[in-house]
Design a protein that fits this description.
5 helices, single chain, 21% strand, Alpha-Beta Plaits, 137 residues
């Protein structure tokens, strides 16, 4: 069970995982060694699985952010999955889901034209519902 200090540590690390243990300790009112021990315990318990960077996709030229719900046309999903392997440069996340659809894709494209090309090719393997991100909060 996490106490409030552990929750505060997780919150601070989620904002900036590059904090030194001393800086993190100051934010959660612990010494560097005490916070280091708590972070190690959170890692050992699998609560902290790793550390990541946040990339600005627009700075990489990926301006179109889309969620695509996939409805496969066949019970054999292998052709669809093979198609996706050829399109990995656009795919951020790929989930198998329940409910409306079989899969959910989160994608980024450099332009609407590239999105349209992707959708036209995808149409050979599955139907889809498209949602474009207008603003990220």
């Amino acid at each position: 069970m996490l106490d409030n200090t552990d929750k505060n540590i997780l919150e601070e690390l989620s904002k900036n995982s590059r904090l030194t243990m001393k800086e993190l300790g100051e934010k959660v009112h612990l010494t560097g060694p005490a916070v280091s021990a708590r972070v190690a315990k959170l890692e050992d318990q699998g609560i902290i699985e790793g550390y990541a960077i946040k990339i600005n996709p627009a700075k990489l030229g990926l301006f179109v952010h889309a969620f695509i719900t996939i409805i496969t046309q066949s019970t054999n999903h292998q052709p669809y999955l093979s198609f996706l392997k050829s399109q990995e440069q656009y795919i951020i996340h790929h989930y198998k889901i329940s409910g409306d659809g079989c899969y959910l894709l989160e994608c980024r494209f450099p332009s609407n034209e590239k999105l349209n090309d992707f959708l036209e090719a995808l149409n050979h393997y599955a139907n889809y519902k498209l949602s474009i991100v207008i603003n990220e909060k």
